[in-house]
Design a protein that fits this description.
mainly alpha; 153 residues
Length: 153
């Protein structure tokens, strides 16, 4: 695969299709429009990113449901988790950066609200029974055991 070219996954467009959303924090790629980001963009963007991340995690966790015999691969488990949480990671990192370098009372308030929601999401991941079940099953596969480099993490 060429550098800078991303392969699309079947469920990814539904999670990341933000056409028509006028919020610079939700731009899926490209340069970050720091000059266009306002405090009123923060909470709606984080809410949208959390919704997409949660949907992605639930889709992965569904692979552990009784009777589901989907193949567990890097792409369907760990890659899917990375894709599901990417927008949240990116959006919150931008907000965190802005709060650190160009803060205001309104941005600080929005950042605080977003941080609470984001922290709850991240701290809940290790406790998600379905996700844990899929990760545990995947770890036992030949695919997982054959991982090298950064994917082995």
């Amino acid at each position: 695969m060429k550098p800078g070219v991303r392969r699309r996954v079947a469920w990814m467009p539904a999670l990341c299709d933000l056409r028509g959303v006028d919020n610079p924090l939700l731009a899926p790629r490209g340069d970050i429009a720091f000059d266009k980001i306002r405090p009123e963009h923060v909470v709606p963007a984080i809410d949208a990113a959390l919704e997409r991340a949660t949907s992605g995690v639930e889709a992965i966790a569904a692979l552990s449901a009784p009777g589901v015999e989907a193949p567990l691969t890097y792409d369907t488990v760990l890659g899917a988790l990375d894709r599901a949480t990417h927008l949240l990671e990116r959006s919150f990192a931008v907000v965190e950066h802005l709060e650190g370098v160009a803060t205001s009372p309104a941005l600080r308030e929005a950042y605080g609200a977003a941080q609470e929601k984001t922290s709850a999401f991240w701290s809940g991941l290790p406790l998600h029974e379905g996700l844990f079940a899929v990760l545990t099953r995947y770890a036992e596969t030949d695919d997982a055991k054959a991982l090298t480099g950064i994917r082995r993490r």
